[in-house]
Structure to design on (351 residues):
């Protein structure tokens, strides 16, 4: 017999240690940011970065209502692969941005899918025209922050290896021309792209939303998370809490909150189908395969190394270098260095 399954119970906001740290750091930096600044928020996939964006906007502007004011102090645009063959399209991104800012000519109004006027405008307009329209829309909406979520997808833009860097530089130019703060949010691959974009160096602020490491302090915080999730799932009598399987849960999630939540969703769904509570055996059955975990771990470790490397490179690039002074000329002015003249080379000499 099928039990009732409520997946929304996992959507609760759990204020764990890494979340508190990331939200506090991001809020402080955004509050002090100047127009044209770039803030990069990164971390492992499904760490809760999208939820972090919504919470930051709420903290910055409260329950701001566009319908009442006609303004949008913060705009969120997802950088998805909407181009041909799964490529990232800058034109498609610009269209999404125009939709997000509710442009009167370049967006479909409400649920009206037969808004042919908007569709024709989108189809016929050049990307340059839409870019100008987007800049004017940001100014009209009094936008202060542009959040670009899933920004790591920009690596799939067509062209040479410099194409992704050019896209980020273009976003940077947009922020400077309009006078807004650019917030780039994404998984670890975005770190290398941002670090290699020359126009971002010097005005970039890095915020890391990390996983829990295998340290005593982090494992203790991870156990607190497990205790919280224990209250929203039905556990077998053999388990007083998910903390009893803390080692299994950490190894199967690598300390990533997104992986942990997805795992518990799978286990809870199977438990409801089978009409039984969750036990350690079911947790092992619904754990990701070793091959999947190996692939995810490689991506996470590579991203964490890139973040460290990026921080070191930024620190070195910001070091002040002493200017090289030209070598001093030790000879006296208007006095040539004495040399022996070749015989017969004197002016006026005759044979």
């Amino acid at each position: 017999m099928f039990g009732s399954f409520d997946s929304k119970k996992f959507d609760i906001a759990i204020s764990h240690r890494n979340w508190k740290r990331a939200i506090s750091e991001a809020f402080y930096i955004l509050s002090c940011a100047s127009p044209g600044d770039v803030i990069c928020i990164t971390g492992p996939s499904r760490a809760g970065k999208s939820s972090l964006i919504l919470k930051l906007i709420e903290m910055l502007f409260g329950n701001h209502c566009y319908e009442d004011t006609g303004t949008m102090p913060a705009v969120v645009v997802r950088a998805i692969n909407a181009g041909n063959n799964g490529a990232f399209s800058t034109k498609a991104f610009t269209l999404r941005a125009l939709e997000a800012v509710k442009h009167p000519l370049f967006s479909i109004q409400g649920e009206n899918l037969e808004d042919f006027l908007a569709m024709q405008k989108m189809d016929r307009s050049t990307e340059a025209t839409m870019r100008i329209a987007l800049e004017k829309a940001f100014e009209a909406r009094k936008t202060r922050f542009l959040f670009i979520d899933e920004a790591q997808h920009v690596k799939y833009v067509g062209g040479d290896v410099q194409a992704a860097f050019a896209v980020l530089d273009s976003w940077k130019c947009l922020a400077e021309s309009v006078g807004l703060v650019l917030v780039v949010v994404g998984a670890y691959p975005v770190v290398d792209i941002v670090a290699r974009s020359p126009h971002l160096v010097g005005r970039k602020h890095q915020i890391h939303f990390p996983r829990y490491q295998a340290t005593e302090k982090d494992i203790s915080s991870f156990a607190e998370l497990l205790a919280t999730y224990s209250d929203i799932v039905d556990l077998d009598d053999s388990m007083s809490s998910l903390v009893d399987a803390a080692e299994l849960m950490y190894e199967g999630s690598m300390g990533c909150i997104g992986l942990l939540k997805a795992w518990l969703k799978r286990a809870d769904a199977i438990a409801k189908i089978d009409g039984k509570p969750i036990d350690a055996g079911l947790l092992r059955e619904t754990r990701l395969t070793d091959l999947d975990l190996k692939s995810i771990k490689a991506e996470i470790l590579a991203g964490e190394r890139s973040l460290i490397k990026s921080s070191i490179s930024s620190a070195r690039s910001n070091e002040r270098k002493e200017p090289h002074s030209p070598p001093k000329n030790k000879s006296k002015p208007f006095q040539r260095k004495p040399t022996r003249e070749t015989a017969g080379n004197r002016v006026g000499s005759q044979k």
The domain at 213-292 is CATH 1.10.8.60 (Helicase, Ruva Protein; domain 3).
